[in-house]
Amino acid sequence: MVRIQDMLDTATLDSGSTSAATGQDENIGQAAFDQHLDERPQEQQASAGPSNPSVSDAVADRLDVVNQQPDLKLVVISNRMAPFDPNKPQTGGLTAGLEPVVERSGAVWIGSSETPGDGIERPLPLVPTGAGHVARLDLPAADHPGYYRGYSNSTLWPALHSLPDRMSGSEEDYGSYRRINDFIARAAFDVRDRDAFWVHDYHLLPLGANLHDLGIERPTGFFLHTPWPTPDMIECVPDHRELMKSMLKYDLLGFQTNRDLNNFLACLRNHFGLESKDGVVTTERGQTRLQKFPIGIDPERFAEYLAAELSPAEQEKVSSLLQNFQGAKFAIGVDRLDYTKGIDKRVEAFNHLLAAEPGSISLLQIAPTSRADVDEYQKYKEDVENAINHVNAEHGTDEWRPIHYTNDSFSQTALARLYRAAKIGVVTPLRDGMNLVAKEYVAAQDPKDPGVLVLSKFAGAAEDFNEDEALLVDPNHPEEIADAILKAANMPLEERVKRWRSMMDKIESYTIHDWSADYVRELDKSRVTVPADQCLNIGLGWTNVAQMPLYRNHGEALATYKEIDPADVALKEAAYADENKAYEALEARLMHTQGRLWAIPTASLIGRSEQKPGAGTE
């Protein structure tokens, strides 16, 4: 965590206005406060870490930026967790994104064990994983159905994907949802002294408020892996106002796309009359910053997957699948069996395609079963399978089947092989936060003979890949998907290489490590912790009224020190000790204030000439 000594050398926020708090006889201006700190003896800054050099936006290398990530002791919290085994299948974009972050950064990752528990609070079960630790919680069995199957996946999930007809659930679900969030927050209390908390996804929207209520007031950030809907759509969610208010207890809210960020800001305006200024929303709690952080993948690791050996069992599965195509062109779709993924529309597109060009191309659809205990998902599985059977019966022959469909899960190593073999990647969700499959498909391609990506314009990845790179389609129109697949199947090599190279350059220039480093660096700036009605100055930072006597004590001690003739070494040293003691008292109070500090301007703090007595002249 960057502390005050480091901040004196590194913080660089712009100045702003000031406002006076009630009940203060003396209004000490920000400029005066800055001046006192500017005039501190140089030696007293010696414990600070090295200043972070400014990096030119025009020439900065992304690797250098990643290496500048603050050295925070981070707590990551999500519902689902990664298996941390390359031979086991990932369970979605969230786990694929967070696994390398935890392994590299030394973070503590808290999440669900997916085993029902008795609700009794126990010490956090930390297990070393790479450089980090993982704690899998047995969430209370009594509330888990309402929290997970009910409010999270039958209410929030369809609403966030703008599918109100898919919404269901009971009035009791919201209570279970809040109680599970509170249970996770109490478990996280065991690691309350770590530097920052990074919470993930729609299962845990109110967790920041729970952490705050427990007195855990380190920087807290939230990242949404799904889309965020329009104001009229969020109104369909029971208790949506309370949920959104609880989200404003986070210091930093991260979204995948500009569309999601703008939708959330519109919801704040429509439902609360709140406006943002430069991406900052100010409430009675303090400030919440909102930003876009488009998640990426690790292309180097994906290259390793392509080179890695498969287990004998998976080698058999992959070989068996590929034998179905016998060297012919085929498209691949890899999605959880979820109604937001548009698999039914994709199958309908193949029906149109094969009616126009019989026997032209096949589809390999990998769709691991998802949330099988939710009625909506059971019905969707039946609909997809009926549609596939219809296409295969209508267009297949004894020797050839148009659609090969499996609910099996595959490791990333196996998927990399299948992506590379497929000449077309079909990623057509109705809505999606990002969709990392799109980026994984591109990363797996042969640079000399790459495949073509057909991508939904409503996936977050479409904000990264333009129409000159991917073939963008409306996933609700099967005819449009069919036309794009046919175009991809017949695209000349030169155009395929040009499109692929442009997408691959983007993937390599902004990886999962850039994403996490950018987010954590922004989270580290979240040092505003004091409610507005308890603040003396707002501008270059927020100054707690309770700290003003300590500020004045330090100012007086510093003034005394400066008035003493340097020739009087003994008296100068005694005054130095008094000034240092006063400064340490001020610093201790600042650190006690939730471990976070206001940002202090640095331009005037660099290049001081004053030194400790006896170390040189003034």
Q: What strand line-up does the widest sheet have?
A: 3-4-2-1-5-6-7-9-8
Q: Which stretches of 5+ consecutive residues score pLDDT under 50? A: 1-34, 43-68, 528-547, 591-618
Rg: 28 Å
Biggest beta-sheet profile: 9 strands, mixed
Mean pLDDT: 81
Q: What best-fitting shape do the alpha-carbon axes yield?
A: elongated
- Please report the number of helical segments: 21
Strand content: 5-15%
Estimated structural class: alpha/beta
Give a topology summary.
Elements: H1 4-10, H2 30-38, H3 62-67, E1 74-77, H4 93-105, E2 108-112, E3 126-129, E4 132-137, H5 144-160, H6 173-188, E5 196-200, H7 207-213, E6 220-223, H8 231-234, H9 240-247, E7 252-255, H10 258-272, E8 280-282, E9 287-292, H11 299-307, H12 312-323, E10 330-334, H13 343-356, E11 362-366, H14 375-395, E12 403-406, H15 412-421, E13 424-427, H16 436-443, E14 452-456, E15 471-473, H17 478-489, H18 493-509, H19 512-523, E16 535-538, E17 542-544, H20 548-563, H21 569-592
Parallel strand pairs: 1-2, 1-5, 2-4, 5-6, 6-7, 7-9, 10-11, 10-13, 11-12, 13-14, 14-15
Antiparallel strand pairs: 3-4, 8-9, 16-17
